[in-house]
Amino acid sequence: MPPKQLSTSPKILTIRSRIAQEAHFIISEILPAKIVSLSSVDMYDNSLAEINETSVKIVSKKHRVEDMAVQLPILISYEKEIRSIHALLRNEISELVGFCGKMRLWATLLLPRFNNGNELHEPIEGNAIEDIIAELSRIENEGFAFLDSIVQYYNTRARLETYEVQAGTRAQSCDRGT
């Protein structure tokens, strides 16, 4: 006995067709354009040797705390290249994760649904679609993990710079005390 098909209203059909059109547009237009544009980006045009350079400005005179012009050692970091790369990647990955979500929704709507609960007659294409959905979910998760790693990079860098500032002030107070 063939499986029963779910009843579909005109609203559901229009939503399905809109999602299908968006998915086809993403696959045929947007993704190839993204590949070309990201392949042509020259992220390493400047010397990467400047990325890890830092300049420390140390105050040699002792100032009172009441003075508003008390200056701690200021760590000036040269991370403009990293910030620009992260900004580019953050925007592109966020957009591509959204595209993966739309394509996953479209693939989910392509799966055959059965009312009687008998899934033994599921066609082979259903398994391929499930594999595609699993792969799109994996790509989404990796995109989110990469975005989390960018946040973790800035948190770690802030902790290190805070430690450097504190270590610099400790060294200055030890030098003054002896």
UniProtKB/TrEMBL annotation:
Classification via Gene3D superfamilies: Proteasome activator pa28, C-terminal domain (1.20.120.180)
Pfam families recorded: PA28_C
Electron transport found in the keyword field: no
Residues passing through the membrane, by range: none
GO CC terms in record: cytoplasm; nucleoplasm; proteasome activator complex
Recorded GO MF terms: endopeptidase activator activity
A GO BP annotation: regulation of proteasomal protein catabolic process
InterPro entries assigned: PA28_C, PA28_C_sf, Proteasome_activ_PA28, Proteasome_activ_sf
Top-rank taxon: Eukaryota
Record-given protein name: 5969_t:CDS:1
Keyword check for Hydrolase: no
Keywords attached to this entry: Proteasome
Species lineage: Eukaryota, Fungi, Fungi incertae sedis, Mucoromycota, Glomeromycotina
Limits of the Proteasome activator PA28 C-terminal domain: 76-160
Family statement: Belongs to the PA28 family.
